[in-house]
Amino acid sequence: MNLSEAGYQPLVSIITLNYNQAAVTAEFLESSKRLLYPFFEILICDMASSEDPGTIFKGVDYPNARLLVSTKNLGFAGGNNWGIRQARGEFVFIVNNDTDLTPDIIQRLIQPFYQNPSIGIVCPKIKYFDDPRIIQYAGFRPMNPFTGRTSSIGDHETDNGQYNVSGVTNGAHGCAMMVKKEVIEKTGLFPENFFLYYEEWDWSARVQKAGYLIWYQSDATILHKESMTVGKENPMKTYYLTRNRILYMRRNSSAFNLLVFGLFFILFTIPKTIIACLISGHFIKLKWFLKGITYNLTHSSKSPV
pLDDT grade, residue 77 (50/70/90)? Predict the structure, then answer.
């Protein structure tokens, strides 16, 4: 059954975070004007930006959008949870503000839910904004149970149609994911102790344990400007990637897998990173890498922050 046959078009809540990127978010909102799907709301969740987001977001220009201003930076997990709690839609589309929405993306992402009730999350094909011929995501490979690492299928490949078959994938991409509201109600929100990075993997694991599928929809496309908020070389990124890689493994591994991961990390990852940082002179990166490790020595895996 497709949406036209069903004769029903549910409300979709689009949730995007803004943190000192008002101009970027304004470009995102401009792309939303091209959406063909008629029933949507946009919740712009500002994470205590130092710049006034109200100078960019004019309600008269974006009648479907609401600006929600937090007094605290809640991070990716907490910020999206805050938006989800205020969303009115039957479906929630969690999407980065540094993306360009394609006109038909909403109806293409909704369609699989009506074809298979076991589907809980649907993700589009993600391409790079600077060169739309190049793929960033066409599904995820499985998380390696011993290294805590995974990779995106098709990343940096030219799109020649080789990933034009939709199907079940191993994890949802935090850049863009459509979720049934009832799935969130049954499985819970993002784990807020992650703050940034790996939270979508922890959430994906929980959604799958609840019996839902994560679906890659090949004919839905979005363009991603990538890492405009955090930046590619940033101490915060090093800290949270290190901290949350370990935290994810602590929360989602068997005792044996966690032991192997611990040995791999101690014997390989730590020496390799220390040597590389010393040689390159990236002492700040080394400092935050070690801080990420220290967090896991002093906090429970269930710690709220």
Answer: very high
Give the Cβ contact number of residue 197 at 10 Å: 23
- In terms of DSSP H, where are the helices of the chain? 3-6, 22-32, 75-86, 105-115, 181-187, 199-209, 235-252, 255-264, 270-280, 283-298
Name 94's Cβ contacts closer than 8 Å, sequence gap at least 6. Answer: 15, 16, 80, 84, 174, 176, 177, 178, 179
What are the φ/ψ torsions at residue 221 (nearest 5 degrees)? -130, 145
Query: 């080789």: which residue's tokens?
Result: 162
pLDDT of 196 over the 90 cut: no
- Phi then psi for 252, rounded to 5 degrees? -130, 15
Say what the pLDDT of residue 104 is: 97
Give the pLDDT band of residue 37 (cuts 50, 70, 90).
very high
State the burial class of residue 23 (Cβ atoms within 10 Å of its Cβ: 0-12, 13-18, 19+). exposed
The whole-number pLDDT of residue 195 equals 87
